[in-house]
Amino acid sequence: MTKPRLRAGLVGLGAMGRHHARVLRALDGVDLVVAADPGGDPHGALGGSVPLVADVRELLAYQPDYVVVACPTGMHEEVGLALAEAGVPALIEKPLAHDTPAARRLVEAFESRGLVAAVGHIERYNPALQSMRTRLEAGELGEVFQVATRRQGPFPHRIADVGVVKDLATHDLDLTGWVTGSQYRSVAAKTAHRSGRPHEDLVTVLGELDSGVIANHLVNWLSPLKERVSIVTGERGCFVADTLTADLTYFANGSTRTEWDAVSAFRGVSEGDMTRYAIPKREPLTVEHEAFRDAVEGKADAAVVTPRQGLRAVMVAEAVLESARSGETLPIGAA
Hints:
Order of helices and strands: EHEEHEHEHEHEHEEEEEEHEHHE
Structural class: alpha/beta
CATH architecture of the largest domain: 2-Layer Sandwich
Strand content: 25-35%
CATH topology of the largest domain: Dihydrodipicolinate Reductase, domain 2
Domain Gfo/Idh/MocA-like oxidoreductase N-terminal: 7-121
Organism: Actinospica durhamensis
Number of helices: 9
Radius of gyration: 21 Å
InterPro entries: Gfo/Idh/MocA-like_OxRdtase_N, Gfo/Idh/MocA_Oxidoreductases, GFO_IDH_MocA-like_dom, NAD(P)-bd_dom_sf
Distance between the termini: 43 Å
Low-confidence stretches: none
CATH superfamily of the largest domain: Dihydrodipicolinate Reductase, domain 2
Pfam families: GFO_IDH_MocA, GFO_IDH_MocA_C3
GO molecular function: nucleotide binding
Shape: globular
CATH class of the largest domain: Alpha Beta
Oligomer: single chain
Largest sheet: 9 strands, mixed
Strand order of the largest sheet: 14-13-12-11-7-10-9-8-15
């Protein structure tokens, strides 16, 4: 007996929504049956074959099995609550919501109804970070000391409602806890406004995790160099994940003795072998969609980012912004 195909809806056809539309139109076992955007389909992502409506209320008339929410962050709560009220599972782009209270309301709305929901923290599906996490779980670095990330590039003109912390830094705030299996205990941060916009366009974050791991994040929209790098350092060496190229490289601590006095007197680590791993490289957005489709179908092993995990990322991001305003190191409470 042929398994029925899932009917998917999509809210938002902007810079990110068009990519969701592309993936949904090609996803095994899924039909994109309707999309909603009051601004139309500026990128032609629907190919003229999918009905386009103005809002989520009209979209619900098509009775989708689940909906992907890719509208501006400030609309996530309104759209997500409407879907939860209608009993429709939702994959909501990150960040989950514009602030912590809104994120909590979304968590409660989906959890109280027992609905499948997820947050689109796409870096969790990057092949380099997935391989890194597997190797960290296997203890290949030994004790982990530090996570350092750099995420910088030119300003994306598609972003107007949030600053660099909630748009970009939430990637790093989420992936750090995910790859290490530990959550933030506290954060301290500095931000800057250099491009004349109301929101911050540069942030540097110093965090401490529950495990004692130190985290450093450098994020900005001011650099002509586009960079997406995550470095995890431990007692046996370090992993370097480049999520632009999906490459993972291991730099081992050297064990070869040296007779050069100036070097041998140093009591730290030394340079050892360098290995770049050969890993399968599938598009993270496709893998994310497959995981959510599997979750909607009830597969227990579907690896999605839960709304409560998305709430945690929003909470840490808001603590980062408050720390930058107050100049204080702030503790992070439970999600």
